[in-house]
Amino acid sequence: MNLYDINPMSLIWGYPKDSFYKYTKGESFFVSEMRPSFAGLSICQHLNKANTAIYITDNMLGILFYKNKIKDILFFYKNKKDNLYTGICGSLYINVLAKTHNIEIKFYEGLKNEFEEYRKISTDFPFINYYIESCDESFSGGN
């Protein structure tokens, strides 16, 4: 598959709830590896049952933004308080890319304890319950 042949798609960032998968049948997504837990592998595994999911390494994100292949970001947060969102490790990085390339971020409530939930999906990959960047909603390029 050539990068030029890929249409712009939504990027999944964070850990979606099970209900997300019920409403996305037939859609295509980029799914970041989401270090250090590599939960993107399990998310792809879950998505590929009814969708197309393209697993990308974190260092590919910048290229995809630069080549206008990211349509929007589906940001699944752990906590929200006063328009501040707590996301997974690397959330500040993704917000800077979105602002720089004027990409809309759509915020959705994600799993509260992704470690346990994604461990149920697949035990083939190591998971670390690791969070931490808080992001202001106004940080999004689309708002």
Task: Write a compact overview of the structure shown.
The protein is α/β, with parallel strands linked by helices and 143 residues long.
Spatial order of strands in the largest sheet: 3-2-1-4-7
Number of domains: 1
Count all strands and give the number: 8
| Mean pLDDT, all residues | 77
Assign the CATH superfamily: Translation initiation factor eif-2b, domain 2
Classify the helix fraction into a percent range.
25-40%
Strand content: 25-35%
What is the string of helix and strand elements? EHEHEHEEEHEHE
Counting H and I runs of at least 4 residues, what is the number of helices? 5
Rg calc = 14 Å
What's the CATH architecture name?
A: 3-Layer(aba) Sandwich
What's the quaternary structure here? single chain
Fill in the CATH topology.
Rossmann fold
Q: What structural category do the secondary elements indicate?
A: alpha/beta
The best one-word shape is globular
Unreliable runs: 121-143
